[in-house]
Every structure is written in C-alpha cells, then in structure tokens.
Design brief:
CATH class of the largest domain: Mainly Alpha
Order of helices and strands: HHHHHEHHHHEEEHH
Mean pLDDT: 83
Low-confidence stretches: none
Helix content: 55-70%
Radius of gyration: 21 Å
CATH superfamily of the largest domain: lambda repressor-like DNA-binding domains
CATH architecture of the largest domain: Orthogonal Bundle
Largest sheet: 2 strands, parallel
Strand order of the largest sheet: 1-4
C-alpha cells in the first residue's frame, strides 16, 4: 500500500473547488468522462493515484493543467481566467503580456523592468496605461502597482492567446536550441511505436512534467525571482510522421 501523496490531494481539492464554482456534480463529470459516479468519487476520495486521470479531468473541463497546479499550491478559491477581450488583445500584442508577467508574476519593479529591457519612460507609460484599461492592474503615484488579476492566472485551453503564445514559444526555443551556444541539452527522436507503448510514453512525459510543475510552483512561492534560474522546455508529440520532401535532381 502506497503512503498518501499530499500533491495528489492538493490537486483533487483544487478540482473539487473548480467543480463547485462551475456548478458541476460528480455525476455530471462522470457523464463527460464516460465513467460512473462511483468511479469519480473513488478518484477524488483517494490519497494517491495516477496523474493521468486528473489530466483527463482537466481536458474534459478545458482547463490548463499547469494553471491547476498553480491554483492548488496557492490555495485560491478559483483560477483567475483572462477575459475573452484580454485574451484577444494579448494574442495580438504579446509584449503587453510579457510586461504584465514581469510586474505581477515575477514581482519586478518598474525600475527593474526598464533596466532589464532597456525601455524608455514613454514606452512604460503606454504599456501601463493599456494594462490598466484592460482591468489587469492599477497604477498609483510613485510607480506603485496594484494588481487586480492575481495568480494563478488561467487561459482558455484552445483559445487564441494560448495558440499565439505557444507559436511564439516554439519559434524562440527552436531558434535557441538550434544554436549550440545557447543550447544546454537537446534530444531528438522519431520512433515507430505500438498504440499501447505510445500511450505509456505520453503518460510518462505528462507525469514527469507534472512533477516539475509542482516543484516550480513550490519554489516560486518561497524564492525571489532573482534566486531562480530560467528553464525553457519544449515537449511535443505528433501522430503524423515528419515529412522531409525529396526534390528531383
């Protein structure tokens, strides 16, 4: 018998809160997962269990799993999702989201933000004015910022912002990984696997990422951003073979 896993209980409690906010019962969730109400109760009643089942619940509820992890550790009553208008604006203007992250999630001061990115005072004012108009923060005298949308911040799983952010992330990390001067670690693989082995591999990757999502959430709670090292990771899986056209010669 496995000992209780406090991380698993944190995640299931966070999911229970989310179900309550959305007005969903175990029976409703069971219908969406094609499981009985009793099976759902067992998932939420356990002190340990496979993360894959919780990921399936997240997928059905259309929430981002990392947002759930952050929500669980910060113990908020709910995940604070961006509005549709905020997502649409950020999708078309990603640097504004970067400023929002620096000021709110990374807790940088305006002076630090200016020095780090070489921003002029006029640019800072434009960024802050728009973020304030979007209802994300308030700007007070002496460069004091009051955050109105607190962590954990969630995004629609398949929304326009998620797509735009992911595309930019892929471009940036591919550029760095392609240059040995900026690459610390790189693995590339292409296999032919049976469906069951492919499923095992997918779950193993998700479990590994989940473990480090949780560790990152804990460390961000107890450390200053100045004491943490940035880590960029790209993990992808496609059912289609990579195509490399062979030209006529």
């Amino acid at each position: 018998m496995h000992p209780p896993d406090p991380e698993y209980r944190l995640l299931t409690r966070a999911l229970k809160r989310l179900l309550k906010v959305r007005g969903l019962t175990y029976r409703d969730l069971g219908r969406r997962l094609a499981l009985s109400e009793a099976s759902i109760k067992r998932i939420f009643g356990r002190t340990d269990g496979p993360i894959g089942k919780l990921i399936r619940i997240c997928n059905v509820l259309e929430i981002d799993f990392l947002s759930l992890v952050m929500h669980a550790h910060k113990d908020h009553a709910r995940i604070n999702y961006l509005t549709e208008a905020q997502e649409l604006f950020f999708a078309a203007n990603l640097p504004y989201f970067d400023v929002f992250v620096e000021l709110t999630m990374r807790k940088r001061s305006i002076a630090e933000l200016q020095a780090l990115h070489g921003l002029k005072a006029a640019s800072i004012r434009k960024y802050l004015k728009k973020l304030e108009a979007l209802g994300l923060l308030e700007v007070h005298p002496h460069d004091r910022i009051r955050v109105r949308l607190h962590e954990p911040v969630g995004f629609a799983k398949d929304g326009v912002f998620r797509v735009a952010f992911t595309q930019r992330f892929v471009r940036q990390i591919a550029k760095r990984l392609g240059d040995s001067k900026h690459r610390e670690f790189l693995l590339t693989r292409e296999w032919m696997l049976s469906p069951s082995t492919r499923s095992d591999f997918t779950l193993a990757l998700q479990s590994l990422c989940t473990e480090f999502d949780q560790r990152a959430a804990r460390e961000q709670n107890v450390h200053s951003c100045h004491d943490l090292l940035p880590v960029a990771l790209l993990v992808g899986l496609t059912e289609e073979a990579l195509e490399f056209p062979i030209p006529n010669i």
